[in-house]
Write the C-alpha coordinates for this entry.
Amino acid sequence: MAAGPCTVANNLYCDQAMCEQCNYARLLKNADLEATANRLHVMEVVGGNNCPLTAAEIFHTISRTQPINQVTVYRILELLVEQNLLERITIGGRAAHYGMAPNEHHAPHPHFICTRCAAIDCLSPECLSVDMENLRKTFSGEVERVEVRVEGICRNCLKGGGKK
Amino acid sequence: MAAGPCTVANNLYCDQAMCEQCNYARLLKNADLEATANRLHVMEVVGGNNCPLTAAEIFHTISRTQPINQVTVYRILELLVEQNLLERITIGGRAAHYGMAPNEHHAPHPHFICTRCAAIDCLSPECLSVDMENLRKTFSGEVERVEVRVEGICRNCLKGGGKK
DNA sequence: GATCCGATGCAATAGATTTGCATGAATATT
DNA sequence: AATATTCATGCAAATCTATTGCATCGGATC
Protein backbone atom coordinates (compact mmCIF):
# COMPACT_ATOMS: atom_id res chain seq x y z
CA MET A 1 0.00 0.00 0.00
CA ALA A 2 1.42 3.36 -1.01
CA ALA A 3 2.44 6.03 1.49
CA GLY A 4 0.60 9.32 1.46
CA PRO A 5 -2.58 10.98 2.57
CA CYS A 6 -5.86 9.28 3.26
CA THR A 7 -6.95 8.68 -0.28
CA VAL A 8 -5.15 5.39 -0.22
CA ALA A 9 -6.28 4.26 3.17
CA ASN A 10 -3.00 4.07 4.98
CA ASN A 11 -3.96 5.25 8.40
CA LEU A 12 -0.92 5.53 10.60
CA TYR A 13 -2.39 5.65 14.04
CA CYS A 14 -5.40 3.38 14.39
CA ASP A 15 -7.93 1.45 12.42
CA GLN A 16 -10.92 2.75 14.28
CA ALA A 17 -12.69 3.92 11.17
CA MET A 18 -12.39 0.82 9.02
CA CYS A 19 -15.21 -1.62 9.37
CA GLU A 20 -15.97 -5.15 8.31
CA GLN A 21 -18.87 -5.59 10.68
CA CYS A 22 -21.31 -2.88 9.79
CA ASN A 23 -24.32 -3.99 7.83
CA TYR A 24 -24.90 -0.93 5.70
CA ALA A 25 -28.27 -1.99 4.37
CA ARG A 26 -29.49 -2.49 7.88
CA LEU A 27 -28.10 0.83 9.05
CA LEU A 28 -29.98 2.52 6.24
CA LYS A 29 -33.22 0.69 6.95
CA ASN A 30 -32.96 1.56 10.62
CA ALA A 31 -32.80 5.19 9.65
CA ASP A 32 -35.88 4.78 7.46
CA LEU A 33 -33.87 5.25 4.31
CA GLU A 34 -34.21 3.21 1.17
CA ALA A 35 -31.07 1.12 0.71
CA THR A 36 -30.38 2.19 -2.86
CA ALA A 37 -27.33 0.99 -4.72
CA ASN A 38 -25.78 4.44 -4.66
CA ARG A 39 -26.24 4.84 -0.93
CA LEU A 40 -24.75 1.44 -0.30
CA HIS A 41 -21.77 2.30 -2.48
CA VAL A 42 -21.16 5.48 -0.53
CA MET A 43 -21.37 3.68 2.79
CA GLU A 44 -19.12 0.88 1.61
CA VAL A 45 -16.46 3.27 0.41
CA VAL A 46 -16.52 5.34 3.57
CA GLY A 47 -16.75 2.37 5.90
CA GLY A 48 -14.12 0.42 3.99
CA ASN A 49 -11.52 3.13 4.37
CA ASN A 50 -9.64 3.75 7.56
CA CYS A 51 -9.48 7.49 7.37
CA PRO A 52 -12.06 10.09 6.39
CA LEU A 53 -12.50 10.81 2.69
CA THR A 54 -13.63 13.87 0.76
CA ALA A 55 -16.72 13.87 -1.41
CA ALA A 56 -14.49 13.97 -4.47
CA GLU A 57 -12.52 10.95 -3.30
CA ILE A 58 -15.69 9.02 -2.62
CA PHE A 59 -17.05 10.01 -6.01
CA HIS A 60 -13.93 8.92 -7.87
CA THR A 61 -13.71 5.66 -6.00
CA ILE A 62 -17.27 4.71 -6.81
CA SER A 63 -16.87 5.92 -10.38
CA ARG A 64 -14.17 3.37 -11.01
CA THR A 65 -16.78 0.64 -10.94
CA GLN A 66 -20.19 2.30 -11.13
CA PRO A 67 -21.62 5.26 -13.01
CA ILE A 68 -22.71 7.89 -10.50
CA ASN A 69 -23.14 11.63 -10.49
CA GLN A 70 -21.09 13.84 -8.21
CA VAL A 71 -24.18 15.72 -7.12
CA THR A 72 -25.74 12.45 -6.08
CA VAL A 73 -22.74 11.78 -3.90
CA TYR A 74 -23.12 15.18 -2.25
CA ARG A 75 -26.78 14.59 -1.65
CA ILE A 76 -26.24 11.16 -0.19
CA LEU A 77 -23.49 12.43 2.06
CA GLU A 78 -25.67 15.22 3.35
CA LEU A 79 -28.51 12.82 3.99
CA LEU A 80 -26.34 10.32 5.81
CA VAL A 81 -24.75 12.99 7.97
CA GLU A 82 -28.20 14.30 8.87
CA GLN A 83 -29.26 10.79 9.83
CA ASN A 84 -26.12 10.27 11.86
CA LEU A 85 -24.82 7.39 9.80
CA LEU A 86 -21.77 9.34 8.69
CA GLU A 87 -19.92 12.17 10.30
CA ARG A 88 -18.50 15.21 8.56
CA ILE A 89 -15.07 16.42 9.54
CA THR A 90 -13.90 19.80 8.40
CA ILE A 91 -10.48 21.30 8.17
CA GLY A 92 -9.22 24.74 7.34
CA GLY A 93 -10.83 26.08 4.21
CA ARG A 94 -10.58 22.78 2.40
CA ALA A 95 -13.03 20.08 1.46
CA ALA A 96 -15.01 18.32 4.16
CA HIS A 97 -14.11 14.74 4.97
CA TYR A 98 -16.54 11.96 5.79
CA GLY A 99 -16.17 8.98 8.07
CA MET A 100 -18.43 6.53 9.86
CA ALA A 101 -20.43 8.13 12.61
CA PRO A 102 -20.08 6.59 16.05
CA ASN A 103 -22.17 3.41 16.35
CA GLU A 104 -21.84 0.01 17.97
CA HIS A 105 -18.78 -0.76 15.88
CA HIS A 106 -17.26 2.72 15.86
CA ALA A 107 -16.31 4.53 19.02
CA PRO A 108 -16.06 8.31 18.80
CA HIS A 109 -12.45 9.25 18.31
CA PRO A 110 -10.29 12.33 17.75
CA HIS A 111 -8.83 13.18 14.38
CA PHE A 112 -5.35 14.23 13.51
CA ILE A 113 -4.48 16.68 10.77
CA CYS A 114 -0.92 17.07 9.60
CA THR A 115 -0.15 20.75 9.10
CA ARG A 116 2.60 19.84 6.69
CA CYS A 117 1.11 17.31 4.30
CA ALA A 118 -2.60 17.82 5.12
CA ALA A 119 -3.17 14.12 5.74
CA ILE A 120 -6.05 13.29 8.03
CA ASP A 121 -6.06 10.31 10.31
CA CYS A 122 -8.22 8.83 12.98
CA LEU A 123 -6.68 8.52 16.43
CA SER A 124 -7.58 5.72 18.77
CA PRO A 125 -10.50 6.54 21.03
CA GLU A 126 -8.50 6.05 24.22
CA CYS A 127 -5.64 8.34 23.36
CA LEU A 128 -7.41 11.49 24.39
CA SER A 129 -10.00 11.79 27.08
CA VAL A 130 -12.20 14.78 27.59
CA ASP A 131 -13.88 15.76 30.82
CA MET A 132 -17.50 15.90 29.69
CA GLU A 133 -18.79 16.04 33.25
CA ASN A 134 -17.56 19.51 33.89
CA LEU A 135 -18.70 20.68 30.48
CA ARG A 136 -22.27 19.52 30.94
CA LYS A 137 -22.36 21.05 34.39
CA THR A 138 -21.25 24.50 33.32
CA PHE A 139 -22.76 24.73 29.87
CA SER A 140 -26.25 26.11 29.59
CA GLY A 141 -27.04 24.77 26.12
CA GLU A 142 -27.53 21.16 25.08
CA VAL A 143 -24.41 19.22 24.13
CA GLU A 144 -24.81 16.79 21.24
CA ARG A 145 -21.26 16.00 20.30
CA VAL A 146 -17.71 16.93 21.11
CA GLU A 147 -15.15 16.85 18.38
CA VAL A 148 -11.46 16.84 19.12
CA ARG A 149 -8.97 17.71 16.46
CA VAL A 150 -5.26 17.37 16.95
CA GLU A 151 -3.02 19.35 14.66
CA GLY A 152 0.64 18.72 14.24
CA ILE A 153 3.20 16.96 12.14
CA CYS A 154 2.66 13.33 11.27
CA ARG A 155 5.13 10.53 11.65
CA ASN A 156 5.75 10.47 7.90
CA CYS A 157 6.61 14.15 7.65
CA LEU A 158 8.84 14.02 10.73
CA LYS A 159 10.84 11.34 8.99
CA GLY A 160 11.15 13.66 6.04
CA GLY A 161 8.81 11.53 3.99
CA GLY A 162 6.09 14.13 3.79
CA LYS A 163 5.44 15.98 0.57
CA LYS A 164 5.17 19.74 0.77
CA MET B 1 -27.13 44.46 21.74
CA ALA B 2 -29.19 42.34 19.37
CA ALA B 3 -29.65 38.60 19.75
CA GLY B 4 -28.39 36.32 16.99
CA PRO B 5 -25.24 34.74 15.65
CA CYS B 6 -21.75 36.01 16.14
CA THR B 7 -21.77 38.78 13.62
CA VAL B 8 -23.16 41.05 16.28
CA ALA B 9 -20.82 40.01 19.03
CA ASN B 10 -23.28 38.59 21.51
CA ASN B 11 -21.33 35.74 22.91
CA LEU B 12 -23.47 33.78 25.32
CA TYR B 13 -20.97 31.76 27.23
CA CYS B 14 -17.78 33.65 27.90
CA ASP B 15 -15.88 36.72 26.87
CA GLN B 16 -12.61 34.95 26.39
CA ALA B 17 -12.16 36.18 22.86
CA MET B 18 -12.89 39.85 23.34
CA CYS B 19 -9.91 41.94 24.25
CA GLU B 20 -9.27 45.42 25.47
CA GLN B 21 -5.73 44.70 26.51
CA CYS B 22 -3.98 43.52 23.38
CA ASN B 23 -1.76 46.07 21.73
CA TYR B 24 -2.20 45.10 18.12
CA ALA B 25 0.59 47.26 16.76
CA ARG B 26 2.98 45.68 19.20
CA LEU B 27 1.78 42.18 18.38
CA LEU B 28 2.45 42.88 14.71
CA LYS B 29 5.88 44.37 15.35
CA ASN B 30 6.81 41.40 17.51
CA ALA B 31 6.03 39.17 14.59
CA ASP B 32 8.20 41.31 12.31
CA LEU B 33 5.21 42.57 10.41
CA GLU B 34 4.61 46.13 9.35
CA ALA B 35 1.69 47.55 11.34
CA THR B 36 -0.26 48.81 8.34
CA ALA B 37 -3.66 50.40 8.72
CA ASN B 38 -5.38 47.45 7.09
CA ARG B 39 -3.69 44.92 9.34
CA LEU B 40 -4.60 46.93 12.39
CA HIS B 41 -8.20 47.14 11.24
CA VAL B 42 -8.36 43.38 10.82
CA MET B 43 -6.88 42.79 14.25
CA GLU B 44 -9.16 45.32 15.87
CA VAL B 45 -12.26 43.81 14.35
CA VAL B 46 -11.29 40.28 15.29
CA GLY B 47 -10.02 41.20 18.75
CA GLY B 48 -12.95 43.49 19.44
CA ASN B 49 -15.48 40.77 18.82
CA ASN B 50 -16.18 38.07 21.32
CA CYS B 51 -16.77 35.27 18.88
CA PRO B 52 -14.92 34.22 15.75
CA LEU B 53 -15.81 35.96 12.48
CA THR B 54 -15.68 34.93 8.84
CA ALA B 55 -13.50 36.73 6.32
CA ALA B 56 -16.64 38.18 4.77
CA GLU B 57 -17.84 39.52 8.11
CA ILE B 58 -14.49 41.08 8.82
CA PHE B 59 -14.43 42.61 5.36
CA HIS B 60 -17.90 44.10 5.70
CA THR B 61 -17.21 45.44 9.15
CA ILE B 62 -14.06 47.22 8.05
CA SER B 63 -15.77 48.42 4.87
CA ARG B 64 -18.30 50.35 6.87
CA THR B 65 -15.61 52.83 7.82
CA GLN B 66 -12.62 52.19 5.57
CA PRO B 67 -12.17 51.27 1.94
CA ILE B 68 -10.51 47.86 1.71
CA ASN B 69 -10.41 45.04 -0.78
CA GLN B 70 -11.71 41.61 0.10
CA VAL B 71 -8.60 39.97 -1.28
CA THR B 72 -6.52 42.10 1.04
CA VAL B 73 -8.54 40.80 3.95
CA TYR B 74 -7.91 37.21 2.87
CA ARG B 75 -4.22 37.89 2.51
CA ILE B 76 -3.95 39.57 5.89
CA LEU B 77 -5.87 36.76 7.56
CA GLU B 78 -3.62 34.16 6.04
CA LEU B 79 -0.55 36.07 7.12
CA LEU B 80 -1.77 36.55 10.66
CA VAL B 81 -2.73 32.91 11.03
CA GLU B 82 0.69 31.88 9.77
CA GLN B 83 2.30 34.16 12.31
CA ASN B 84 0.09 32.84 15.08
CA LEU B 85 -1.59 36.13 15.84
CA LEU B 86 -4.97 34.82 14.78
CA GLU B 87 -6.41 31.36 14.74
CA ARG B 88 -8.59 29.85 12.06
CA ILE B 89 -11.59 27.82 13.14
CA THR B 90 -13.51 25.74 10.66
CA ILE B 91 -16.98 24.38 10.80
CA GLY B 92 -19.04 22.13 8.60
CA GLY B 93 -18.49 22.94 4.96
CA ARG B 94 -18.85 26.67 5.37
CA ALA B 95 -16.51 29.62 5.63
CA ALA B 96 -13.60 29.60 8.07
CA HIS B 97 -13.87 31.76 11.16
CA TYR B 98 -11.07 33.77 12.71
CA GLY B 99 -10.40 34.64 16.33
CA MET B 100 -7.47 35.79 18.43
CA ALA B 101 -4.80 33.14 18.74
CA PRO B 102 -3.84 32.15 22.27
CA ASN B 103 -1.53 34.72 23.82
CA GLU B 104 -0.99 36.29 27.23
CA HIS B 105 -4.50 37.72 27.18
CA HIS B 106 -6.21 34.84 25.46
CA ALA B 107 -6.19 31.34 26.86
CA PRO B 108 -6.89 28.52 24.40
CA HIS B 109 -10.54 27.62 24.65
CA PRO B 110 -13.10 25.31 23.04
CA HIS B 111 -15.71 26.55 20.61
CA PHE B 112 -19.37 25.85 20.51
CA ILE B 113 -21.42 25.53 17.34
CA CYS B 114 -25.18 25.52 17.47
CA THR B 115 -26.52 22.88 15.10
CA ARG B 116 -29.80 24.71 14.87
CA CYS B 117 -28.89 28.36 14.26
CA ALA B 118 -25.22 27.91 13.29
CA ALA B 119 -24.03 30.47 15.82
CA ILE B 120 -20.45 30.05 16.98
CA ASP B 121 -19.34 30.93 20.47
CA CYS B 122 -16.23 30.69 22.54
CA LEU B 123 -16.48 28.60 25.69
CA SER B 124 -14.53 29.42 28.79
CA PRO B 125 -11.14 27.76 28.92
CA GLU B 126 -11.89 25.88 32.15
CA CYS B 127 -15.13 24.30 31.05
CA LEU B 128 -13.48 21.44 29.22
CA SER B 129 -10.22 19.84 30.11
CA VAL B 130 -8.35 17.49 27.86
CA ASP B 131 -5.81 14.93 28.93
CA MET B 132 -2.84 15.94 26.82
CA GLU B 133 -0.45 13.77 28.82
CA ASN B 134 -1.79 10.55 27.52
CA LEU B 135 -2.00 11.90 23.99
CA ARG B 136 1.62 12.94 23.84
CA LYS B 137 2.68 9.63 25.31
CA THR B 138 0.87 7.51 22.76
CA PHE B 139 1.08 9.66 19.67
CA SER B 140 4.07 9.19 17.44
CA GLY B 141 3.81 12.48 15.55
CA GLU B 142 4.37 15.98 16.89
CA VAL B 143 1.37 17.71 18.47
CA GLU B 144 1.08 21.42 17.80
CA ARG B 145 -2.43 22.21 18.83
CA VAL B 146 -5.60 20.55 20.03
CA GLU B 147 -8.90 22.02 19.01
CA VAL B 148 -12.07 21.11 20.80
CA ARG B 149 -15.42 21.77 19.24
CA VAL B 150 -18.68 21.26 21.03
CA GLU B 151 -21.78 20.87 18.93
CA GLY B 152 -25.28 21.15 20.26
CA ILE B 153 -28.17 23.50 20.73
CA CYS B 154 -27.52 26.90 22.19
CA ARG B 155 -29.38 28.54 25.03
CA ASN B 156 -31.19 30.82 22.63
CA CYS B 157 -32.51 28.03 20.44
CA LEU B 158 -33.55 25.94 23.45
CA LYS B 159 -35.68 28.84 24.57
CA GLY B 160 -37.24 28.84 21.12
CA GLY B 161 -35.49 32.05 20.22
CA GLY B 162 -33.31 30.55 17.52
CA LYS B 163 -34.08 31.19 13.90
CA LYS B 164 -34.18 28.23 11.59
C1' DG C 1 16.88 60.03 -9.26
C1' DA C 2 16.78 54.99 -10.17
C1' DT C 3 15.71 50.73 -8.10
C1' DC C 4 13.71 47.33 -5.15
C1' DC C 5 10.23 45.50 -2.11
C1' DG C 6 6.18 44.87 0.27
C1' DA C 7 1.22 46.00 0.57
C1' DT C 8 -2.69 46.62 -1.92
C1' DG C 9 -6.27 46.64 -5.65
C1' DC C 10 -8.67 44.59 -9.50
C1' DA C 11 -9.90 40.91 -12.56
C1' DA C 12 -9.98 36.39 -13.40
C1' DT C 13 -9.80 31.69 -11.91
C1' DA C 14 -10.27 27.59 -9.09
C1' DG C 15 -12.49 24.38 -6.06
C1' DA C 16 -16.35 22.84 -3.28
C1' DT C 17 -20.95 22.72 -2.73
C1' DT C 18 -25.77 23.82 -3.73
C1' DT C 19 -29.93 24.74 -6.47
C1' DG C 20 -33.34 24.39 -10.25
C1' DC C 21 -35.37 21.66 -13.25
C1' DA C 22 -36.37 17.24 -15.75
C1' DT C 23 -36.80 12.30 -15.81
C1' DG C 24 -37.89 7.75 -14.54
C1' DA C 25 -39.15 4.16 -11.37
C1' DA C 26 -41.95 2.71 -7.61
C1' DT C 27 -45.94 3.35 -4.85
C1' DA C 28 -50.40 5.09 -3.60
C1' DT C 29 -55.02 6.86 -5.02
C1' DT C 30 -59.10 7.06 -7.61
C1' DA D 1 -56.05 0.40 -15.35
C1' DA D 2 -55.20 5.37 -15.38
C1' DT D 3 -53.58 9.04 -12.66
C1' DA D 4 -51.22 11.25 -9.13
C1' DT D 5 -47.53 11.41 -5.76
C1' DT D 6 -43.06 10.61 -4.06
C1' DC D 7 -38.44 9.93 -4.19
C1' DA D 8 -33.73 9.12 -6.13
C1' DT D 9 -31.07 10.62 -9.59
C1' DG D 10 -28.85 13.22 -13.48
C1' DC D 11 -27.42 17.40 -15.76
C1' DA D 12 -26.57 22.28 -16.09
C1' DA D 13 -26.03 26.34 -13.94
C1' DA D 14 -25.33 29.11 -10.04
C1' DT D 15 -23.24 30.27 -5.59
C1' DC D 16 -19.93 30.77 -2.20
C1' DT D 17 -15.28 30.79 -0.61
C1' DA D 18 -10.72 31.34 -1.49
C1' DT D 19 -6.63 31.89 -4.47
C1' DT D 20 -3.68 33.63 -8.27
C1' DG D 21 -1.75 36.80 -11.77
C1' DC D 22 -0.68 41.09 -12.83
C1' DA D 23 -0.42 46.26 -12.22
C1' DT D 24 0.34 50.10 -9.17
C1' DC D 25 2.02 52.85 -5.53
C1' DG D 26 4.59 54.44 -1.54
C1' DG D 27 8.54 54.00 1.19
C1' DA D 28 13.19 52.48 1.89
C1' DT D 29 17.67 51.75 -0.28
C1' DC D 30 21.38 52.39 -3.44
In short: Confidence is low (pLDDT under 50) at residues 1-10 of chain B.
